[in-house]
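Possible regression after last week's pipeline update?

I re-ran a chain I had predicted before the update to compare outputs. Posting the input and the new output here so someone can diff against the archived version. Not blocking, just want to make sure nothing changed silently.
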Amino acid sequence: FELRGINHLALVCKDMKRTVEFYEGVLGMPLTKTINLPNDMGQHFFFDAGNGDSLAFFWFPDAPESQPGVTHPAHRMGEGPLTTAHASMNHVAFDVPEDKIEEYQQRLEKAGVKVTPVVNHDDSETQASLTLTDSTFVRSIYFEDPDGIMLEFAAWTRELDERDVNAAPMEAV
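New output (post-update):
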């Protein structure tokens, strides 16, 4: 397989107009393709996520309601458990420049979006710090879209290498 990245990630929203206002208006992701599905099944819209990648949304008029803690995390990072159901989508992380994290945090707050403090993910026992450490590998801020989908702006702080792959995969019992 010649994989070249993610073509698009397709999520489901409750209100396409509100979704367009957030992703295009607040996050600045251009709307690149709109589709009205046949037989009044709904809509499928695509947003430019950078580097040729897209984030897409379906809107289905008869979709069931979301269930926090099942379909998406019930809490933001640092506010409670992040557990979600098997086959669910936990969160979407957008790659951003490291020197822009604090600026983007302030811009989101100014737009009325509730956002976490900067989290410095590292190899410590708690796996996170409010300050940079020698083992910090990514800096992040977390926030939600209007449907409660957890989003992350993440910036790599160093090259990952073979030392970073050191946990054996767990097996279901």
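Follow-up from reviewer: compared with the archived run. The radius of gyration is 17 Å. Marking as no regression found.
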